[in-house]
Amino acid sequence: MQVGVFLPISGRATGPDTLKEAAQTAEAQGFDAVWSADRLVTPWQINTPYPYSENQEFIVPPDRPFLDSFTCLAFLAACTEKITLGLSVLVLPYRHPLYWARVAVSIERLAKGRLIMGVGVGWMEEEFAALGVPFKDRGRMTDEQLQILERLWTQEHISYSGQFYNFQDLAFYPKPIQQPRIPIWVGGEGYAAQRRSAQYGDAWFPYFISITPTELRAKHDEVRRIAAEAGRDPDKVLLTCCRAVEVTRSPVPQDDHFLRGTPEQLVEALGAYRAIGVDHIALQFMVPRWPERVEQIARFAQEVLPHLRS
């Protein structure tokens, strides 16, 4: 099971030195990937419940810096050598597919093939409103974009006619280094995301705050079933996930819905994810201040990561 760690692309500590240090340290510590989040604007008032925190409140205050996801990964392509660069997840309806596909393949080329594209439909209604993108259409827009992407990265003469995007006989070069395409990991937790993963994705890539490994495996079995019905090989849709994690000093009561405990407890908890066939787990260390987060990541790398490799 591969293990990734989220980058500090938001908050007061973020900046070139912090990002470079975080990515290079993760590479030296043996993590397989570093992950960049995505945000274009943050309204001062957010009424949409945030599905990825325990209190359903967005975790980055509006007056904190939030760097662009693609820009950070392009910067880190030149600062790292072997660690994979991941995006978790790019909200596809916010950008035209002809634009972001060009940016993605440019970064993948500059990073010599070290890019994974996590993609999703988005969750914040206020952000969609600010950008003038219809929230209710975000799923259909995402499906069209994924259909377009397959053509851009594999065909020579590219045309598409849909409800939201239309173009005729375009060239798109260069193609990705990774063949047949940059891996597409589809985020989202509900049935629509499972269907989208089964039809278009190389992996299902949900972010559950609260779920057991057994429940996660059952949901991935549904993805596999849908993939088979769509005529795809179910083994081609990997099980990956994002999880919040907290490394504690003293043992805490264990609940297999959460990743929280001492390194010894986390070794056992994460072993259950490896046992159900998780190919990659991206960890978000839920410590507000960056220095304490650095300490937790280092303890995890020293005391947990080696056990996941054995």
3D architecture notes:
- The longest helix has 17 residues, at about 140-155.
- The chain has one domain (about 1-310): TIM Barrel (Alpha-Beta Barrel).
- The protein has an 8-stranded parallel β-barrel with strand order 1-2-3-4-7-8-9-11, surrounded by 7 helices. Strands 5-6 form a two-stranded antiparallel sheet.
- The termini are close together.
- The mean pLDDT is about 95.
- It contains 10 helices and 11 strands.
- The radius of gyration is 19 Å and the shape is globular.
- Helix 6 (about 190-200) crosses helix 7.
- The protein has about 300 residues and is α/β, with parallel strands linked by helices.
Q: What name does the CATH topology carry?
A: TIM Barrel
Helix content: 25-40%
Overall, the morphology is globular
Proportion of residues in extended strands: 15-25%
Note the total helix count. Answer: 10
Multimeric organization: single chain
Distance N terminus to C terminus?
Answer: 10 Å
CATH class: Alpha Beta
Annotated CATH architecture: Alpha-Beta Barrel
Strand order of the largest sheet: 1-2-3-4-7-8-9-11
CATH superfamily: Luciferase-like domain
Q: Output the helix-strand order.
A: EHEHEHEHHEEEHEHEEHEHH
- The assigned structural class equals alpha/beta
